């Protein structure tokens, strides 16, 4: 399992949000390194595709997970106010072994927290 994972629950239906594109970036002044994944049937990302920097030891710094929510709601024939959700978080000088980013999502609102 990579050191950063995420999970989306659709709070309107009470079900996991499957097949949502997620992008994970390490933010710097000059560039962003990105990996991508689709949430699985349980709404989880447990494996990232692309540059495999995320499977190595984490670097301190600022990261972003972008959840592309527009297509998810469109496939379900539902409108949404948020076409995507960006969650930006900071990893300190002594990184933990694992960071989990849950997203509780509805058409017109969302919340997040640091999971375990």
TrEMBL record:
Reaction catalysis annotation: 5-hydroxyisourate + H2O = 5-hydroxy-2-oxo-4-ureido-2,5-dihydro-1H-imidazole-5-carboxylate + H(+)
Key words of the record: Hydrolase, Purine metabolism
Stretches that traverse the bilayer: none
Gene Ontology BP annotations: purine nucleobase metabolic process
Ligand binding (substrate): 7, 44, 113
Gene3D superfamilies, sorted: Transthyretin/hydroxyisourate hydrolase domain
Domain Transthyretin/hydroxyisourate hydrolase, first and last residues per copy: 3-115
The protein's Enzyme Commission number: 3.5.2.17
Keyword set includes Transport: no
Main enzyme class: hydrolase
One Pfam family per UniProt: Transthyretin
Sample GO molecular function, one term: hydroxyisourate hydrolase activity
Family matches, as SMART domains: TR_THY
Hydrolase listed as a keyword: yes
Subunit organization: Homotetramer.
Family affiliation: Belongs to the transthyretin family. 5-hydroxyisourate hydrolase subfamily.
Task of the protein: Catalyzes the hydrolysis of 5-hydroxyisourate (HIU) to 2-oxo-4-hydroxy-4-carboxy-5-ureidoimidazoline (OHCU).
PANTHER family: 5-HYDROXYISOURATE HYDROLASE, URICASE AND TRANSTHYRETIN-RELATED
Protein name as it appears in the record: 5-hydroxyisourate hydrolase
Species assigned in the record: Pichia kluyveri (Yeast)
């Amino acid at each position: 399992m990579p050191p950063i994972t995420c999970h989306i629950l659709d709070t309107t239906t009470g079900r996991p949000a499957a097949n949502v594109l997620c992008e994970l970036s390490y933010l710097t002044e000059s560039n962003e390194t990105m990996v991508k994944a689709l949430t699985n049937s349980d709404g989880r990302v447990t494996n990232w595709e692309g540059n495999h920097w995320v499977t190595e030891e984490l670097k301190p710094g600022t990261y972003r997970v972008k959840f592309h929510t527009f297509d998810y709601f469109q496939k379900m024939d539902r409108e949404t106010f948020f076409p995507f959700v960006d969650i930006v978080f900071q990893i300190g000088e002594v990184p933990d072994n694992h960071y989990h980013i849950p997203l509780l999502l509805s058409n017109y609102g969302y919340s997040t927290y640091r999971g375990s």
